[in-house]
Amino acid sequence: MPTSLKSRAEEWDRLIARLDKAGVPPDVRWRTLILYMRNVRGFYFLSERQKSEIQQLIVDTLKARDYTDRHYEEVVKRQEEILLGPHKEKLRMTLDESEGLLRDFRDLMLRKKGDVQELEVLTVGLVESEKSPKEMISAMRKAFHEVVHAMETDMADLTRISMTDALTQLYNRRAFDEHLSASAEACVQAGQPLSLIMIDIDHFKRFNDTYGHRIGDQALRVVAKVLLLHGEEVNGRPDAGRKGRYFPARYGGEEFAVVLNRTPLEEAAQMGETIRSRVEHYNFTIQDNSGNVLHEGVRITVSVGVARLDPAWKGAWAENLLEHADKHLYQAKESGRNKVCCVLEE
Predict the structure, then answer these.
(1) Per-residue pLDDT averaged across 190-214, rounded?
(2) Global pTM?
(3) How many CA atoms lie within 13 A of 228 on its CB side?
(4) 293-298 and 302-308 as β-strands: parallel, antiparallel, unpaired?
(5) Active-site residues: which are they?
């Protein structure tokens, strides 16, 4: 037997021996499932969190020693949730955003329908007039170009709207996902650092319960304003957008994110502290619908997690970067809130 085939056979025998020792019955379905989950952990496109959950699922399955048909279906379902969960969440958010985009597109088409009808009326009027052919063609061409220009402007606005969070005017989750993925790939290829800041408003539910959702929305706008103004300082101009190295977005709910291209972790941590401090010292006044002051000097705080991309992750860069920043954000909240957490030597 060739050496390669012999080594494979020996490896297979060792795997079977381990399954026997773990008490896995000689059932093709169970042994195939466990070996598949074992191999899934090596897939480069999975995040560290997904790999950890798959590992835990294997451990729990072996500990349970329940190899019934019902438990088999439960393990398969749980494995699918781990592998597909992040994609389902993105799909749900995309569908929600697409619904709003379709409404905007419908309104746009209704407006354009009116413009086209006006162009038709103008055309008929010109044909029925006594103007020379040269004059008619000139007037029709001008009117047509005006309609086309208006449509191009509206389509540009529609593209911008589809990437903007309506409440805060920051980039939305869709724009964030696209930008983070593209930035991760570009920075790895160019050998440049990429850092990510995750920000969460402390005790936001309590704030909403105390002051109401309208005031809660005002708090979200306060954080967004701090992020936008800080972005102008870092990028050097207010309209840098995706071309600047500072990209602020509303990640979802009371959570925000800043993608920092060409920015090492230590500098990103300093920016996170600047954001935290400015939010903490921002005072705003709560007024009712009539303009009467209800509360003055209201303040909020945020917890901040910062991480940098590690090229050694070898794939799933955006997912792993997000996971590490989210982990540090959780540490900031667990250790008292209103602070910045990161690992400068990571």
Answers:
(1) 92
(2) 0.60
(3) 13
(4) unpaired
(5) 254
